[in-house]
């Protein structure tokens, strides 16, 4: 969906901050401290899930003092849509030889329904990783069981459409330091 500048600005006006940047920063630092202690004596691989996970990963990783290898993985159910598709589209997987016998941490912005992270976890384990740990900024309460749980969760949210801190709305506003709830139906934006 193509939005004009006025419609894009209206998105933000029709939204409310759920978690401010100070809350997000505090939680990312807490996660970094936990992970940094856990990886002592190891050289893990940290995979950022593109595109949303890169913002969260960058915030966490700048507080990690132990050595690690950084790479990325790109799989999605969403594209620029607000609701996920029924299948996972793979755009990039790390080479199996890079993750065999390694501890792998996967960083993503949100654990929503869990299908994408479940598939990423399956791929990493099947590729021979010693262990796969999932690290998410947001674990959204969707009111039903998910196929996977995160090992590390920054914040828990109600079941609303969120954006900011890596999460987007129509491909926009990933860069915002606060996390917003969008309060209006999509059709309202276009009026």
Task: Give a written overview of the molecule.
The chain is α/β, with parallel strands linked by helices and 191 residues long. Helices cover 29% and strands 28% of the residues. The protein has helices spanning 5-13, 21-38, 53-61, 96-99, 115-126, 186-189, and strands at residues 15-19, 45-49, 69-76, 89-92, 103-111, 131-140, 152-157, 162-163, 179-182. The chain has a six-stranded mixed sheet with strand order 4-3-2-5-6-7. A three-stranded antiparallel sheet has the order 1-9-8. Helix 3 links the parallel strand 2 and strand 3. The longest helix is centred in the N-terminal third of the chain and has 18 residues, at 21-38. The protein is globular and about 50 Å long. The relative contact order is 0.21. Residues 79-83 have low confidence and may be disordered.
Task: Briefly say what this structure is.
This protein is an alpha/beta fold. The protein has helices at 5-13, 21-38, 53-61, 96-99, 115-126, 186-189, and strands at 15-19, 45-49, 69-76, 89-92, 103-111, 131-140, 152-157, 162-163, 179-182. It has a 6-stranded mixed β-sheet with strand order 4-3-2-5-6-7. It has a 3-stranded antiparallel β-sheet with strand order 1-9-8.
Shape: globular
Helical content stands at 25-40%
Please trace the helix and strand order, writing H or E for each element: HEHEHEEHEHEEEEH
How many DSSP-defined strands? 9
Count helical runs.
6
List segments where confidence is low: pLDDT < 50 over at least 5 consecutive residues. Answer: 79-83
Main β-sheet, spatial strand arrangement: 4-3-2-5-6-7
Overall pLDDT level: 90
What is the terminal separation in angstroms?
14 Å
The Rg value, from CA coordinates, equals: 17 Å
Largest sheet: 6 strands, mixed
Structural class: alpha/beta
Give the strand content: 25-35%
């Amino acid at each position: 969906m193509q939005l004009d500048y006025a419609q894009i600005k209206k998105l933000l006006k029709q939204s409310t901050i759920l978690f401010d940047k100070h809350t997000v920063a505090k939680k990312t630092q807490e996660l970094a401290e936990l992970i940094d202690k856990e990886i002592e004596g190891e050289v893990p691989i940290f995979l950022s899930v593109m595109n949303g996970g890169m913002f969260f990963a960058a915030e966490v990783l700048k507080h990690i003092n132990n050595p690690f290898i950084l790479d990325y993985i790109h799989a999605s159910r969403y594209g620029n849509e607000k609701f996920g598709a029924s299948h996972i589209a793979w755009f990039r997987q790390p080479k199996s030889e890079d993750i065999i016998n390694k501890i792998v941490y996967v960083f993503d912005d949100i654990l929503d329904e869990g299908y994408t992270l479940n598939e990423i976890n399956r791929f990493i384990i099947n590729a021979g990783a010693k262990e796969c740990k999932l690290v998410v900024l947001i674990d959204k309460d969707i009111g039903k069981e998910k196929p996977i749980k995160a090992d590390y969760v920054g914040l828990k949210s109600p079941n609303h459409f969120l954006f900011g801190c890596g999460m987007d709305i129509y491909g926009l506003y990933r860069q915002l330091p606060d996390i917003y709830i969008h309060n209006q139906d999509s059709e309202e934006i276009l009026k």
